[in-house]
């Protein structure tokens, strides 16, 4: 394992396609991949219990590398290749990990691409670093899902310190909601007030999404203060939006946003 102290990055080759590790001051370790390039750096934020090996993250990284653009992928602590326990994770901790990596890699401007829970996390990162975040792209963004996505009886169990387990349609193991994550999510709710983010935002959402209602992207569009918010609804799209045509739409959305930000078609 190659550990890199916080704020100290070794010289990297033309593209760091292999996994590296970044250490935070409290000894948390975050796995990441980075390819340098021009323009604002793309930072892909995976969803709940997802990682940087997913199809959308890999597609964004490979396209950025082919086009000579900077791109950062990461696994939150306790996820993917990052050590730690998932049950110790929270939005606030993972937000700090994203910000720490952005600072350590000296990325001056970033465009955050957030999938599902990553769409909530991208909003929290943008609120914490408005001078650095120049654009947001949400894929079935799920802000506040600890509130609207958790039954009232389960909230009572979580408030009592119990873990709630649900059927997982994407794998054999049930999906846990741990008390720490739920409580931190409830402390970071955003949709009940104006969200003071002013950068361009593009939200992609499938209208056959069984996990995150597509109407939530319309609600988020209304809550954002930015005057430049676009919502694209995919009539037959599911939650993951990982079909070839969905990936093509995502990459086209990335291209369009970067072109608008840099003035290059």
UniProtKB/TrEMBL annotation:
Its EC number is 3.1.1.93, 3.1.2.22. Residues 42-248 form the AB hydrolase-1 domain. InterPro entries: AB_hydrolase_1, AB_hydrolase_fold, ABHD10_acyl-thioesterase. SUPFAM superfamilies: alpha/beta-Hydrolases (SSF53474). The keyword Cytoplasm does not apply. Coiled coil: none annotated. It is an enzyme of class 3 (hydrolase). It comes from the Bacteria. Keywords: Hydrolase, Transit peptide. One of its GO terms (molecular function) is hydrolase activity, hydrolyzing O-glycosyl compounds. Transmembrane segments: none annotated. It catalyses: mycophenolic acid O-acyl-beta-D-glucuronide + H2O = mycophenolate + D-glucuronate + H(+); S-hexadecanoyl-L-cysteinyl-[protein] + H2O = L-cysteinyl-[protein] + hexadecanoate + H(+). Acts as an acyl-protein thioesterase that hydrolyzes fatty acids from acylated residues in proteins. Regulates the mitochondrial S-depalmitoylation of the nucleophilic active site residue of peroxiredoxin-5/PRDX5, a key antioxidant protein, therefore modulating mitochondrial antioxidant ability. Also catalyzes the deglucuronidation of mycophenolic acid acyl-glucuronide, an active metabolite of the immunosuppressant drug mycophenolate. This is Palmitoyl-protein thioesterase ABHD10, mitochondrial. It comes from Novosphingobium colocasiae.
